[in-house]
Specification:
Layout lengths: L1 E7 L3 E8 L4 E8 L2 H9 L5 E6 L4 H10 L3 E5 L1 H7 L8 H13 L11 H32 L13 H11 L4 H33 L2 H6 L7 H11 L8 H8 L5 E4 L2 E4 L8 H16 L5 H13 L1 H23 L5
Parallel strand pairs: 1-4, 4-5
Antiparallel strand pairs: 1-2, 2-3, 6-7
């Protein structure tokens, strides 16, 4: 067996390794390429236990390590930096040695290592969010261009049937420069919306064939698109033993400041899964606007006038997330 700490960067990576049987300690610097990594591992005794710092290049490296059967531990970079504050210097080798030491002595600050299927769901869900953000920007470009000539477009949906029929006529009313750019934005918007439609069809087909997805769609405020995004961000429900851990992961619990008998609830935390929190807030907004009664709507109505609209909306999101937690674990057959 060989323990390995690996500090990964775009061009090169640094390895620090220890063989407990021979007590051989060493280090190596390689190019961040599959062939170089395979060569370096081939010189070390099997099996390999590798600690990899979470970075942009880490998914590719973890994929290569999976291929050769290595045991992988993904390292939280912020907590690793806190451990390394007592080091006399910060270098790639020092970071690799720090990860190796933490791995050997079992105090490695690990992050969640998503399996390949979760990574693929996240790629689809987050890619769709990027497309939706682009669509919003393009809509704003069009509305701003018409606003500059004092014209309000008489339709809400800029990609609907009426807008598609009349937009060429409206674009002719704009000055030359703005008309040119607005025309390009209009063409781009149609392309983006067509791509989003294709993604939505793929997501709906996936949820229709997934037992957990179909069950979660029955909860208030949730539909196939939001359920797919929430499931992608949570990953595996088994890694949360209590629903409050899931609340903290989603950043739906205010930061608490307490001293003695005084307690103050501050803003929502910045260190959390903000994508998951956004999905939950959107679900809460849908749930509280619905005429159907639900735990989320009841919590919102109870807290709205005492705490305000936004805190009440977050409380509704927590109720939805709690329902997701218990529904999902029940379907997975996890005993409470």
């Amino acid at each position: 067996m060989t323990y390995i700490g690996m500090d990964v960067h775009k061009n090169t990576s640094t390895l620090a390794f220890l063989d407990p049987a021979s007590e051989e300690v060493g280090h190596d610097k390689i190019y961040t390429k599959r062939s170089d990594l395979m060569r370096a591992l081939g010189e070390l005794s099997r099996p390999w236990v590798v600690a990899v710092e979470a970075a942009r290049e880490a998914p590719a490296v973890c994929g290569w390590l999976r291929e050769c059967g290595a045991e992988i531990h993904l390292v939280n970079p912020e907590k690793l930096a806190a451990l390394g504050k007592l080091q006399s210097a910060k270098t790639d080798l020092k970071d690799a040695q720090l990860m190796l030491q933490a791995l050997v002595h079992d105090y490695l600050p690990e992050a969640y290592l998503a399996p390949p299927e979760v990574e693929q769901r996240r790629a689809v869900s987050r890619g769709r969010r990027v497309m939706r953000d682009n669509s919003t920007r393009l809509r704003n470009v069009l509305r701003t261009a018409f606003c500059h000539i004092g014209m309000q477009i008489p339709v809400r949906n800029l990609t609907g049937k009426e807008a598609r029929e009349k937009m060429p006529q409206w674009l002719e009313l704009l000055p030359e420069g703005e008309g040119f750019m607005a025309g390009l934005a209009w063409l781009h918007l149609k392309q983006v919306e067509d791509c989003i439609e294709l993604v939505d069809e793929r997501i709906k087909d996936h949820i229709a064939g997934d037992e957990v997805g179909r069950a979660l769609c029955q909860l208030p405020g949730l539909g196939p698109i939001s359920v797919f995004g929430i499931m992608a961000e949570i990953g595996e429900i088994e890694r949360f033993e209590h629903y409050k851990q899931l609340h903290s992961y989603a950043g739906c619990v205010p930061v608490v400041s307490q001293s003695g008998e005084q307690r103050h609830d501050g803003p929502l935390p910045q260190r959390c899964n903000k994508v998951l929190r956004t999905w939950l807030i959107q679900a809460a907004q849908s749930a509280v606007r619905s005429a159907e009664p639900s735990r989320a709507k009841k919590a919102f109505d109870r807290l709205r006038w005492r705490l305000g609209y936004n805190p009440a909306k977050v409380a509704a999101a927590r109720k939805i997330l709690t329902d997701i937690f218990f529904t999902w674990r029940h379907l997975e057959g996890i005993q409470e």
